[in-house]
Input
Amino acid sequence: MIRYLGKRIFFMFLSLFLIVTATFFIMKAVPGGPFTSEKNVPDEIRAALEAKYKLNLPLHEQYLDYLKGIITWDLGPSFTEKSSTVNDMIKRGFPVSAHLGAQALLLAVFGGITLGVIAALKHNKWQDYTAMVIAVLGLSVPGFILASFYQYFFAIKWGWFPIAKWEGFEYTILPSLALSAMPMAFIARLTRSNMLEVLSQDYIKTAKAKGLNTFTITVKHAIRNALLPVITYLGPLVANILTGAFVIERIFGVPGLGREFVLSITNRDYTVIMGTTVFYSIILVAAVLLVDIAYTLVDPRIKLSDTGRE
Amino acid sequence: MKKSIFALVSSIAVLGAALAGCGGQQASTGDQNAPAGQQPAANAEKKPQLLRLNLHSEPPTADPGIAEDTTSGAIIQATFDGLTRIGKDGKTPEPSVAEKIDVSEDGLTYTFHLRDSKWSNGDPVTAHDFEYAWKRALDPKTASNYAYQLYYVKNGEAYNKGKAKAEDVGVKALDDKTLEVKLENPTPFFLELTTFRTYYPVNKKVVEANPKWANEASTHVGNGPFKMESWEHKSKMVLVKNDNYWDKDNVKLDRIEFSMVEDETTELSMFENGELDWAGAPMSSLPTDAIPALKDSGKMTTQPIAGTYWYKFNTEKPPFNNVKIRKAFAYAIDRQSLIDNILQAGQLPAMGAVPPSMALNKDGYFKDNDVETAKKLLAEGMQELGISKLPTITLSYNTHEGHQKIAQAIQDQWKKNLGVDVKLENKEWKVYLEDLHEGKFQIGRMGWLGDFNDPINFLELYKEKDGGNNDTRWENPKFKELLNRSAKESGEQRLKTLAEAEAVLMDEMPIIPIYFYTLSWVKDDDVKGVVIDGLGGVDWKWAYIE
Amino acid sequence: MQLTKEHFEPISVDLRQAEEIKRPSLSFWADVWRRLKMNKVAMASLIFILLLVACAIFIPIFSSHDYYTTNLAGKNKPPSAEHWFGTDDLGRDVFVRVWYGARISLEVGFAAALIDLIIGMIWGGIAGFYGGKVDEIMMRIADILYAIPYLLVVILLMVVMEQGVVTIIIALTITGWIGMARIVRGQILQLKAQEFVLAARSLGADNNRLIFKHLIPNALGPIIVTLSLTVPTAIFTESFLSFIGLGVSAPVASWGTMSAEGLAAMKYYPWRLMFPALFISVTMLAFNLFGDGLRDAVDPRLRK
Output
């Protein structure tokens, strides 16, 4: 296992390096730059700006510069928000997004698994259909529509929650709900599907034959084995949800990190693009590794280093 | 699902603002007659002098030397003061930090005599601070995008472009209280320019001691009516009255609290819920679909600003190398109907390039929706080109719901009026800009918001074929000559020459003017005295709660 | 019930017939179809989907309205006899636009889902089955693709490619398959450790047969569920891509575009959001119910 982990960590760094490299060159290939604007400034001013941000250097030097910045975790100043560095932006935005994301994640995982288990236990009964209609709605109504709905009814019409901003627990509820809907629905469907499979397995029949009650069977034997696809899905989900969701943050006025992923690109704010991408990628590759480790814990028969051929 | 998809699958309305870059709203309003609404009966006692506003987004900077956007501009306007400041009427520049201004006979030398005034940290404001600030903005090392605003000062341009030294720049503190400015040319609107943020002073001691002074509330020092109490980046900013301000007796507000909510619908909801005192322009905008209802409620105020929304032709590519065909397309648009049904915020149809506030010709140079003439011109133009049918025309615009709506309506009007097939093509903002500058378009949308209140700002764009903001590849010797002539003239004569130039432009039609921008907002009835100038800048100096 | 002698009849023991298989021999898919037919909910969903496709093809052809003609005077009108679903902000008939939009949304949604499914199954299947280095390299490639900012890639694509449905489908599938590949790989990792794989192997099944005949069919549950996420994601991503200029250009609108545009008007002209959103939801519901039925029909353990 240790050897396996060592190898994995080596590959993690390799992936990060490749992500950074690819992102850098794609970013440079995309038309427009940070100083492309509606009102063209005189060439000399543009040159001065480019010199200030080192955009006049040859491409490979810029690339090495970014690489150095990433290794020393000094991600540079933002081109657009002149009063902030990329480090500042991550330091400020990430805790907010992570808080919101963690709440949404908890809701999604517990809500989704509960719904899925109920649906599977009552296969093709009304409970199953109700749960699945809810889940399908969650999948087919995207977050931004849901967010607007929640805001309209729960905040504006009925005044139960604040409309927007980020100033305390009550401010986190609507965005968390909106953010969790889609993953919850998906987890519910994954759980249901795998529970159905597991429930028809021989060892569950054995457990039933031994006289164990449904609850014990479900909790002790079935869920654990049905969770595998949920865990797979959780890996990237964790990385996505913790680093913020642009639209939800925007609608609810949450000062999170999600907006930077989108706006840095539309602004061609190169340092922020690189910084946020690296930050996200680190979380992503770590989460993916954790997923693989979780596989072996849930089902000890799984051997990751196994080449599987004979 | 992937991060970006996760972030991106999103409402067009939401993305509209985010991806669009901009292209149109910025702002202004004078505080005219507040319509009587159904506010709860006002308290008899004095209300707290607190204004709750939405700043829309994080101001990129609070440093007047490098600010280039309206959000930063508004904060700087509140926390700084210039030699002159636009008065309560939103138009006239009045002496502010300067107490007395002497202008030489030839209009080339301005001498500003400063009054006793202080920075928010108690330091005196001196002429040296101005000299330092201007040279700093012009210094190529500062790399200020708006440095060109200072090009009117002698050698300003040369210094900025590395062709002169700092000492050569025509600004000099004769003593602590006297600032002497020499100009390149007599500039009739120079005192208006000094109301602009790039001309504001910065505290030399503070800036030299800490290059990051403008990044946090604790180190930010200004000389304006308000000072920064706190700045929670991306979330909140609080300004409070500056007791060191020279004109503090005229400042009635104690406190301005800004939220930073980027979604316009959310902002309007917060306003309707009583959490904000103001929604819409100039910091943000009102959601288009809400405008009819707001208009009916009588709460909405609209004010024109100096800006024109236009389509540009690529005059080098057929069929738009033919002036008659260009004109046919321009005449066949029903601007009034676009305004009444799509824009809905009291915009004015544009039959000229220069906005009405500085209008050279109030009636326009042609008739709106003149289908008959358009058809005739199209037929003639096609004959000249020797074609019997126009190929499909591509109309490009940058990604934005508003531009898309207008483009769809115009597409349909051209189809109905001229029988032309038009294909719409939208592009991401910066890609669009590059394509436009490189001539990769047939007809493309653009807009121009005045940098200062003078027609030259709009006409100059089309002077040179390769000018950075021309895009049409159009050039005309007569037009050029008229503009050159106007630079040497003044007063009525100058305006007449400029009007002649505009007539040439409209006769050649390298652009289709569509409408003149307005700003619309809703506000609480008891908010008074907010000044929004003709360029869309906002000033809260005189604001109060009644 | 009383059992009497009449209820029984003796049969002759015929040894030649004893070895004969009574049930008609069915191929795998014929068997699936037989069982699917018995599932009323799934069949109703299937019929609904077919109807939907037919309507999307024919209604725009035969309607007296079209999707592009604007009528500014008649904008934002609520549903009426003339305009069943009302009109939009440029006075166009929402009913026809919804059906026209169905063409794009269904086409894009399913083409993307199908491609994602195929690439994802093959990629995930191979990575999971062979494990070790193969797995490591294949899954790290997936991670890298997944982490590169999508918007950047899309903007680059926009510059390189022509606007249109094909471009959209390419943009959707560049990274769309990764989720599927991860799910399949996870399932295969679990399944290949089970006894039936060993059994199949000892019966001489080769690797391809093992992956695609034994392992993938057993992972169909999560695969079908993942598809139920892929389709709506594709439909909404399409609206985003079209919006930034990659896809179909206005005035053509898809369901995603229409609901995104309608959202801003939700408070004032709810029909502009309601109808396209309703169509997406109901269609998704039908597909999911059908998918569930299919899953049940395919699952060998649920055979009765």
